[in-house]
Specification:
Elements lengths: L1 H21 L4 H37 L6 H25 L11 E7 L3 H21 L3 E9 L5 E9 L3 H5 L4 E7 L10 E11 L13 E6 L15 E6 L4 E5 L5 H28 L15 E6 L4 E4 L4 E3 L2 H5 L3 H22 L1
Parallel strand pairs: 4-9
Antiparallel strand pairs: 1-3, 1-5, 2-3, 4-5, 6-7, 7-8, 9-10, 10-11
Helix pairs in contact: 1-2, 2-3
């Protein structure tokens, strides 16, 4: 059964390759085929290795009947049988239903929570963490909206990370992030616990979400906050209200009213897209509660403890004593994100059985 499915995938990859090389497809159809082929290209090497192991096992078993080759056959059979479970697991994971949004760019929101100014400073730390992480992966970052504090923290910052597969990497970062450290303003040296919330949404394309003009109200007002004298002299800030959902998006970061509207519509579209996805996910399977969390920003997911230089992900009970590297968006953050991703994949496999 599995062999038949794998051969179908190999044949489909060959068929797509032939279509793309024929020059008979273009535009949206070529883009669609390219995405499908890219996805299949990730699985093909695993399929090839699986068939090589199966062939090796069959050949070794055939050699067992020949006395002079029996010892070598038993050794080869033992090696292949050791390799088979791991490649089988890789295959199962690669064949799991794929999140259609995994290839999308993301819109991220970071908001200060309990803890006053210390929380705002931590929100700034998280923003710098994801900014460094994005740049290290070769992605582009664009700040869409920010509400900075006098100490260079953020009450709120909304930004876009543009890059192939950004959502696949960052989608498990939604939730409450806590920090335990001694604030610079704390004279007695007591450790304080503060928090900031993170929301990660796949950037929606025009084809993902259609927004009817009659469903929104666009308000124009005078920008305020950081940005020099300009922000106090022009009515360039935009507030968009979406009546059916009650979602309100504000953008004043750009000098141009038009650019602010474009940014605000991008955020609104992504919020609506994420809402649609979550509603569909709930209706498909109300019983599944992922061990890595619901993606709700009200759920505590991670604690950053400065005195002990440790970061703990509470969903998978993983602790790494690499706080500096994680906050710098370094390889340790990849290590933590990869562990959470793997845990979710294993849970999905368990639910399929």
């Amino acid at each position: 059964m599995i062999e038949s499915k794998l051969k179908e995938l190999q044949n489909r990859a060959a068929e797509i390759e032939s279509q793309m090389n024929s020059g008979t497809v273009s535009g949206a159809e070529l883009t669609k085929l390219s995405k499908e082929y890219s996805r299949l290209s990730e699985i093909l090497p695993i399929i090839s290795e699986y068939f090589q192991i199966q062939t090796g096992i069959a050949d070794a078993k055939a050699m067992l009947t020949e006395p002079e080759l029996k010892s070598m056959a038993e050794e080869q059979l033992s090696e292949f049988n050791k390799l088979l479970p791991e490649i089988d697991k890789q295959l199962q994971i690669s064949l799991l239903p794929r999140d259609d949004a995994d290839d999308h760019s993301v819109i991220m929101e970071i908001r200060a929570g309990v803890g006053g100014e210390e929380s705002a400073l931590f929100a700034g730390d998280l923003f710098n963490q994801y900014k460094s992480y994005a740049l290290r992966h070769g992605w582009k970052i664009e700040v869409l909206e920010e509400n900075a504090t006098s100490l260079n923290g953020y009450k709120e910052v909304i930004f876009k990370i543009a890059g192939q597969g950004a959502y696949a990497h960052l989608k498990y970062e939604s939730g409450i992030h806590r920090v335990q450290r001694v604030p610079e303003t704390e004279a007695s040296g007591r450790i304080h616990t503060s928090a900031a919330s993170v929301a990660v949404m796949p950037e929606a394309e025009d084809i993902d979400v259609v927004i009817d003009d009659k469903d929104i109200r666009v308000d124009i007002f005078r920008a305020s906050g950081a940005g020099g004298q300009h922000v106090n002299k022009t009515d360039s800030a935009i507030r968009i209200t979406h009546f059916p959902t009650g979602i309100v998006v504000t953008c004043q970061n750009e000098r141009s009213q038009l650019q602010n509207k474009i940014s605000a519509m991008s955020v609104l579209r992504s919020k609506l897209y994420e809402k649609q996805r979550l509603d569909q996910q709930t209706s498909r399977d109300t019983s599944r509660r992922s061990m890595v969390g619901s993606g709700d920003r009200s759920e505590k997911i991670r604690t950053y403890n400065f005195p002990e230089q440790r970061v703990t992900d509470h969903r998978i009970k993983l602790t790494l004593y690499k706080l500096d590297d994680i906050l710098a968006g370094g390889p340790a953050l990849d290590e933590m994100i990869d562990a959470v991703t793997a845990a979710d994949q294993l849970e999905q496999l368990a639910n399929l059985k």
